Amino acid sequence: MHTTRRRTLGILGSLAATAGILPAAAQTAAFPSRPIRLVVPHAPGGNSDTFGRILAQGLGERIGQQIVVENRAGAGGTVASAMVSKSPADGYTLVIADNGTHAIAPTLYGAKLQYDVFKDFTPITLAARFPTVILIHPSVPARTPREFVALAKSQPGKLTYSSAGTGNGSHLTIELFRAAAGGLDMLHVPYKGGAPAVLALLNGEVQMTAVSANTALPHITSGKLLALGVAAARRSPALPDVPTFAESGIEFDGDSWLAVMGPAGIPADVTAKLNREIAATLNVPETRERLAKIGLSVIASSPSDLTEVLRGDVVKWGKAVKDSGAVAD
Questions:
Q1: Which pLDDT score is estimated for 68?
Q2: Which of these three, 248, 277, 301, is where a domain ends?
Q3: What distances in angstroms separate CA 142 from CA 137, 185, 223, 226, 227, one per listed residue?
Q4: Partners of 38 in the beta sheet?
Q5: Which CATH number belongs to the domain containing residue 94 in this structure?
Q6: Which has fewest Cβ within 10 Å: 54, 90, 285, 316?
Q7: Does residue 200 surpass a pLDDT of 60?
Q8: pLDDT at 23 over 90
Q9: Count of domains in the chain?
Q10: d(CA 138, CA 51)
Q11: pLDDT digits (tens, 9 = 90+) for 41-55
C-alpha cells in the first residue's frame, strides 16, 4: 500500500512538472534552462546596442546561459518593442527599453502604437542613465547657456538646430531647452538619423544639435564642436568639466535611460531572479567602468522604481511631444 501511494505521488509530481505548475522556488531554481534572447530595438553601434552587448556578456557568464543579442531596428524602436510585448511571458525574451520606446512613443505614435507601455510589459530594472549634451558650432558667438539664450532672443527665427528626426529624443531635448529658456524662437531641421544631424553641425549648416555624451566626447575633444551644457540633473562622468544647464539657472532634465523589460505576465519569481542577476552583473566594478566610459551611469533599480520613473517620463516627454507638434509618420 505504501509503495502504491509513493508511486502515485511520484506520478503526480511528474505531471505537475510537465504542466509547469511546480512551486515558485523550484521554477526559480530551474530558470534559466536555455539561452535568453535580448532584443535591442535599434541598429548596432548606439548606446542601447553597446549596453546590451556588455550586459549580455556579463549576465551570460553569471547565469551559465548564453544571452543572444538581436538587433531589430525600425520606427524608433517600436517595432521590436511590439514584437517582445507579444512574446511568451517566460523570461526568455527581453528588450532593452528606453525613454524613446516607452516614454516618448505613447504620445508620438498615439493610437498607431502597437503596445501599452504599462499593460504589455513586465518591468525588470531601470538599468542605466545617460545624459544628453547640447552642442553648438564654434562659429556661434556664445559660450554659455545664458549667452546663447540672449543671442537667440536677439535673432528670433534665425538660429537653427538639427535632430535625428522629428519626435526623436535629440529634437525633444532641445524643445525642453527652448521652453525652459523662455520659449526661444529657433528653426528645427530634422535629419534621418543622428550621424547626419551631427554632420550638419560639423559642416556649419546648423548652429546646434543634441547627442549622447559618448557621441559628443570626440567632437568636444577635437575642438570641432562646443558643449553648451549637459541636459541632465547632474554632470556626466564622461564630461566632468561640462556644466549642466541647471547650473546656469535653466531648469530642465533631458536625461535618457535604458531599462530591461519583458512581456507582461512573467512570473514574479523569474522577474525577481532576473532583477537580482542583472543588478549583480551591472554592479561588477569592471562593468561599471566600461559603461562609464561611454557615458552610462549604472542604476540597477527595482521593478517598482522603474514603473515610477516611467510614469513620470510619459508625462514629461508626452508634453514635449505635444508642445513640439511632432507626429510620427
A1: 98
A2: 248
A3: 10, 16, 15, 10, 11
A4: 69, 94
A5: 3.40.190.150
A6: 285
A7: yes
A8: no
A9: 2
A10: 31
A11: 999 988 999 999 999
139-165 pLDDT tens trace: 999 999 999 999 999 999 999 999 999
Q: Which helix (H) or strand (E) holds 162?
A: strand 160-163
Strands 93-98 and 132-136: unpaired
Asked if the structure places residue 6 within a domain, the reply is no
* CATH number for position 166: 3.40.190.10
Q: Does 232 lie in the same domain as 147?
A: yes
- Out of 208, 227, 248, a domain closes at 248
124 and 143 assigned to the same domain = no
pLDDT score, position 28: 54
Distances (CA, A) of 208 to 59, 133, 135, 200, 271: 38, 11, 6, 9, 42
Burial category of 142 from C-beta neighbours within 10 Å (exposed 0-12, middle 13-18, buried 19 and up): middle
Residue 189: domain span = 132-248
* H or E element in which residue 4 lies: helix 2-19
Exposure on the CB side of residue 65, measured as CA atoms within 13 A: 17
pTM of this prediction?
Answer: 0.88
Judge whether residue 12 has pLDDT over 90: no
* Cα angle 259-174-321, degrees, rounded to a multiple of 5: 65
Mean pLDDT value across residues 106-110:
96
Examine the domain organization and report whether 127 and 268 are in the same domain. Answer: yes
Asked if the structure places residue 312 within a domain, the reply is yes
The C-alpha cell that represents 212 in the structure block: 549622447
Q: Looking at the predicted structure, is the pLDDT value of residue 22 above 80?
A: no
